[in-house]
Amino acid sequence: MNHLARPVLAACVAVLVGLLTACGQTVPQPDSSPTGPVTGDPVGLTFTRTGGFIGVDDKVVVQPDGVIVVQQRGSEPSSRALGDDEFAELQNQIHDADIPSVAGDYQAAGADMFEYSIMVDGNTLTADEPEVPASAQPLITTLSGYLSS
Question: Which residues does 103 contact at the CB level (< 8 Å), separation at least 6?
Answer without folding.
Answer: 123, 124, 125
